């Protein structure tokens, strides 16, 4: 990957913060507005992928080390399952939300939905790390 | 004598008949008393806000009513990443 274009780098640097903020906005507002964890996670991942495309794989890897994606990949689902155990601890089915006595809050606020916001964060991280690790794995392939 | 083409033709005709019979039994498209318009959709549309406190009904379904399904969707993502790594991965950068 040898794209060393000044304009591309400048524009990427300018746009990247907005992409990332927008991605996290989509993840955190999944319970209020359209979008959600899957879409938001992919937007966050695309920010990293744009950076790695413009600046090269090595600099991209410096920002998101392999360890980070590996841990996010592994613990995203575990986080989800641990949140599901809240239901079992309360004596109701796995992944129960309101049934487990969790306050679902006022609809329309960012804290509404009980466990849903926390589950969204887990899935967003998981989706982002999957996209990033697939991207880097395919780029670092030695043919 | 080779019976295979004959057997294949008979099986194909039987399968065709079974599928056409199933299509003939389908309820009319868009009729209001179809089995797809059962109480499940009404439950989701009517009670989603009250039961999950979420304005976005899609989120309320995928992360509350169908949360178990979503959990294994993340497992599918994990498996996809794992499969790509197994196929494409070299030892470079892994420290052996």
Overview of this protein structure:
The complex is a heterodimer of chains A (143) and B (96). Chain A has 143 residues and is mostly helical. Helices cover 69% and strands 0% of the residues of chain A. Chain A is elongated. Chain A starts with 5 loop residues before the first helix and ends with a helix. Chain B has one domain. Chain B starts with a helix and ends in an 8-residue tail after the last helix. Helix content of chain B is 69%, strand content 0%. Chain B is an all-alpha fold and 96 residues long. The A-B interface holds A 30-37, 66, 73-74, 76-77, 80-81, 84, 94-95, 97-98, 104-108, 112-116, 119-120, 122-123, 126-127, 130, 133-134, 137-138, 140-142 and B 49, 51-56, 58-60, 62-64, 67-68, 70-71, 74-75, 77-78, 80-81, 84-85, 88-90, 92-93.
What are the key terms here?
heterodimer, A: 143 residues, mainly alpha, 5 helices, elongated, B: 96 residues, 4 helices, 69% helix, 0% strand
List the helices and strands and how they pair.
The complex is a heterodimer of chains A (143) and B (96).
Chain A: H1 6-28, H2 37-55, H3 57-63, H4 66-89, H5 115-139
Helix pairs in contact in A: 1-2, 2-3, 2-5, 4-5
Chain B: H1 4-24, H2 39-52, H3 57-65, H4 67-88
Helix pairs in contact in B: 2-3, 3-4
How many alpha or pi helices of chain A?
A: 5
What do the pLDDT scores of chain B average to? 85
Spatial separation of the terminal alpha carbons of chain A: 14 Å
Strand/helix succession of chain A: HHHHH
Largest interface: A-B, 44 and 30 residues
* Residue runs with pLDDT of under 50 for 5 or more positions of chain A: none
Structural class designation of chain B: mainly alpha
The biggest beta sheet of chain A is recorded as: none
Look at the helices and sheets of chain A and give the structural class.
mainly alpha
CA distance, first residue to last residue of chain B: 60 Å
The gross shape of chain A turns out to be: elongated
Largest sheet of chain B: none
Average pLDDT over all residues of chain A: 87
């Amino acid at each position: 990957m040898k794209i060393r274009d000044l304009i591309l780098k400048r524009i990427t640097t300018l746009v990247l913060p907005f992409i990332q903020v927008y991605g996290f906005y989509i993840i955190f507002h999944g319970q209020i507005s359209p979008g959600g964890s899957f879409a938001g996670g992919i937007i966050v991942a695309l920010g990293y992928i744009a950076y790695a495309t413009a600046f090269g794989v090595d600099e991209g890897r410096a920002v998101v080390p392999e360890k980070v994606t590996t841990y996010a990949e592994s613990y995203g689902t575990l986080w989800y399952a641990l949140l599901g155990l809240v239901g079992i601890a309360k004596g109701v089915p796995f992944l129960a939300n309101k049934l487990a006595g969790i306050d679902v809050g006022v609809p329309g606020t960012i804290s509404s939905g009980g466990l849903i916001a926390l589950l969204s964060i887990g899935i967003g991280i998981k989706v982002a790390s999957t996209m990033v690790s697939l991207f880097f794995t395919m780029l670092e392939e030695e043919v | 004598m080779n019976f295979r083409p004959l057997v294949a033709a008979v099986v194909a005709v039987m399968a065709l008949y079974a599928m056409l019979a199933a299509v003939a039994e389908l309820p009319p498209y868009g009729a209001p008393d179809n089995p797809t318009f059962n109480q499940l959709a009404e439950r989701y549309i009517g009670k989603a806000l009250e039961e999950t406190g979420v304005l976005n009904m899609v989120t309320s379904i995928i992360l509350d009513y169908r949360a178990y399904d979503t959990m294994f969707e993340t497992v599918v993502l994990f498996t996809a990443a794992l499969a790509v790594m197994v196929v494409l991965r070299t030892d470079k950068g892994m420290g052996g």
